Amino acid sequence: MLPSKTLGLLSVSPLVHCSLNTCRLAPVFSYQQCPAPWNDFRSAGRTHCNFHSTRSSHASAAATSVAYRVGAAFSAKGRRFNTKHDLFSFDPSRQPSERPPFTGRPASGQDAFFISSITNSSSAAFGVADGVGGWDASGIDSADFSHALCRNLATNAKENTGEQRLGARDLLSQAFADVVADKDIGGGGSTACVAVGNSTGHLEVANLGDSGFAQFRLNAVHYDSNPQTHAFNTPYQLSIIPPKVLARSRIFGSMPLRDFPQDASVTSHDVRHGDVLVFATDGVWDNLSANELLQIVSRYMAGFQAWQNSDRGTTVGKELARLTEEGGIPKERENSLQTMLAVAITGEAKAASQNSRRDGPFAKEVHKFYPHEEFHGGKVDDICVVVAVVVDASDMGP
């Protein structure tokens, strides 16, 4: 097994100084010390099925207006997943002025999420952020950074004037600027995967780091995002570098690694009635592949006949809109299809992370690049999942 040692911010050898199962590197790194294979390490482990597209979807946009019904679930590392409390549902059927953005701080560890309507419209913004645990070695909790980032993302989306089309990268840039200006946040870093979906069926996503998203359509993986990493376990990350950390890095001749919103990968997608969009932190992607997520999504979509299989193929069920309403599924808490999907994915990822006998995507990457390392099982981490089900707005109730 790999040694479990405290992460040194100035280290360039994460396998020696950081337990693979506990943390990721904070942004102090020397590029000259990085072996070439590390640059492709994180992306290499995500398996893609035959339906995977390496480019954005350019299918014809839906002729009718669409809405995004969104749910979220989360589970902090070291805590039991409580399916009655560790979830959130955003109800778009309420009047826009009555739909406050989620700006709270759930018990999700260093992972965070946001969901908000945009101004007073049926368009929506949502996504996840993952505070980088490597900052713990400098006495900095990146949870403050990631949760503040998501709080700003939600607030800025809701307060957007609408004078210009809101872009995902623009939304991320403003939220990051607000974090930097916040005197209560002295340092830290976070990945981010931010989406802006409008009522015409156009979805724009800005992804920075190793959080990510997948688009599922009619029992297939329609799109699966690729992570951004500088090296093994060192994702792209927005960060605030305290002066003391900067001074220490200069003493040892290292250059601080700091990424910005303009470094995010921005993709555009056409979404349609019946699509399922899953945004998640690496606590999911390190333990479940996109194909395994498809199995979970298909099991529930088909089980509730939101997707219907026949000799003619897979179609969207007539009851989809009703199933995504609050109370559309007769359960006390996860009572909508999108919330049930978020809870199911979170639960499966949690179980996989704690399974020492099943090698997940992260373990398989370790074996590929470091065959002599005895790392097996899942990777325990914070988990955060946001699920949006796209619904034809004409099928929605008042």
Number of helices: 10
Radius of gyration (CA) equals 20 Å
Strand order of the largest sheet: 2-1-16-13-7-8
- Tell me which oligomeric state these chains represent: single chain
Structural features, described:
The structure is a single chain. A hairpin with a 6-residue loop joins strand 3 (111-117) and strand 4. The chain is globular and about 65 Å long. The chain has ten helices and 16 strands. The chain is α+β, with helices and mostly antiparallel strands. It starts with 13 loop residues before the first helix and ends in a 6-residue tail after the last strand. 24% of the residues lie in helices and 23% in strands. It has helices spanning 14-17, 41-44, 143-158, 168-181, 243-251, 282-285, 290-303, 320-323, 337-353, 361-369; strands at residues 66-75, 87-90, 111-117, 124-131, 188-197, 202-208, 212-216, 221-224, 229-231, 234-235, 238-240, 265-270, 276-280, 307-310, 313-316, 383-392. Mean pLDDT is 82; it is low at 1-22 and 27-62.
Which features does this protein show?
24% helix, six-stranded antiparallel beta sheet, alpha+beta, globular, 10 helices
Short description:
By secondary structure, the protein is an alpha+beta fold. 24% of the residues lie in helices and 23% in strands.
How are the elements arranged and paired?
Elements: H1 14-17, H2 41-44, E1 66-75, E2 87-90, E3 111-117, E4 124-131, H3 143-158, H4 168-181, E5 188-197, E6 202-208, E7 212-216, E8 221-224, E9 229-231, E10 234-235, E11 238-240, H5 243-251, E12 265-270, E13 276-280, H6 282-285, H7 290-303, E14 307-310, E15 313-316, H8 320-323, H9 337-353, H10 361-369, E16 383-392
Antiparallel strand pairs: 1-2, 1-16, 3-4, 4-5, 5-6, 5-11, 6-12, 7-8, 7-13, 9-10, 13-16, 14-15
Helix pairs in contact: 3-4, 7-9
